[in-house]
Amino acid sequence: MGSRARRVLLDLAVQAVHVTSQSMIYAYRPDAGSRVIGGYMIFYSAGSAAGALASTAVYSVAGWGAVCLLGAAFSLLALAVWALSARRSRLATRRCSRNPGSEGMAIRQ
Predict the structure, then answer these.
(1) Is residue 58 within 8 Å of residue 70, measured between CB atoms?
(2) What gap in Å lies between CA 24 and CA 42, rounded to an integer?
(3) Which one of 10, 29, 64, 101 has the lowest number of neighbouring Cβ atoms within 10 Å?
(4) Helical packing angle, 3-28 and 33-62, nearest 10°
């Protein structure tokens, strides 16, 4: 596959991620979709900038292999944050099901 085709494929994948994420945001908060998507795009851009700066600095010091390790470390960190968030959400759901009428309590804790 040529370089141009790979770039087009990568761009299509990034656009698919944005469409999927924005669809999930609208499904979760249709009343605040524009505000939440604005925040999503700000953090996406900030994360892209931080990744570009970090990978450039790491590449200049340790080469391409270290950049790959940095990407793996960022991915593992994201996985850990997701796992902790999912666990916390499951615990909150269990607390609410044990105490009917306390739906707001678990979220505040």
Answers:
(1) yes
(2) 17
(3) 101
(4) 140
For the chain, 109 residues long, the average pLDDT of each consecutive 10-residue run is 90 92 87 88 93 96 96 95 90 72 51
- Which two three-digit tokens encode residue 85? 């968030």
What is the rounded distance in angstroms from the CA atom of residue 40 to the CA atom of residue 54? 21
> What does the alpha-carbon distance between residue 7 and residue 14 come to, in Å, rounded to a whole number?
11
pTM beyond 0.70: the answer is: no
- Of 47, 44, 49, 3, the C-alpha closest to 22 is 44
